[in-house]
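Practice problem: predict the structure.
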Amino acid sequence: METLEGTELCFPQLFNNSCRKTKRPHFEAMLIYILVSSISLLTVTLNLLVIISISHFRKLRNSTNLLLLSLAVSDFFVGLLMFFQIMLIDSCWFLGDLMCVLYQYLAYIITSASVGNMVLISADRYVAICDPMRYSTKVTQKTVQGCVCLCWTGSISLQSLNLKDNLKQPGRYNSCSGECIIGINYISGLADLILTFIVPITVIVVLYIRVFVVAVSQARAMRSQIAAVSLVTAKKSEIKAARALGVVVVVFLICFCPYYCVALTSPDNLMNTSSATFVISLIYVNSCLNPIIYAFFYPWFRKSVKLIVILKILQPDSCDANIL
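Answer:
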């Protein structure tokens, strides 16, 4: 009887101090493992292709694509973190309290950096569509690089303050061995909610509503052949880019909003990974969907992936290839 009960524990040798495993039928458990592993591998692979494409081909190194590169980096790390999430499928964490806190710390940094990248993408499209004549002077590569660095630095600083108690004393909120839980006090949780959800999402929605209105009016102007005499008319390519990135933003909002809604309505500030499986899974799926959206809307991404797969990027001067 003791042996049977021991098999249900994360650490059978610890008896009463060990957390219990989540009981699942073997087929269901294997299906979940295969599904999560496949999504993780696909996320890492697709975002790595985006990173290689923009980093390798010189003609892709424009301001907008630098923002996509930053987003792909955060999505790439999300795919890597999914491998750790696999261990939590049976509600057991075997890597110790320190690794648990570092895992959660990285997850928070990447999440807030992704939100910041979306704000930058929305601002980029706002200037490109609403003020096209001054876009090239306002949005330079140096400006974008500075904004991206500020985004990542701000995310690291914010989450370091947010999780400082957990970093000082890993495992302080765990009730048993094999649990991976972090605790956030009310003030820190409220600040994080405002700075990484309410304010950024409001900015994203307002900017894209403005972009949508202006893009529709300019598309009508093009059809009526007024665009040639209008000084504020954006190029068709800019409108197409706004449409494609608009899809990215909408998918992002659909995938991220449930997570923050759960965090907002939670009776306490303890985020138990097992209780938040669905909303966290949506964030992971979003990171996998972004490169698929690029493949659907951007011919340059499809061309660059083809060159990468057939190893033509290893040829001399391949970085100068015209894939636009």
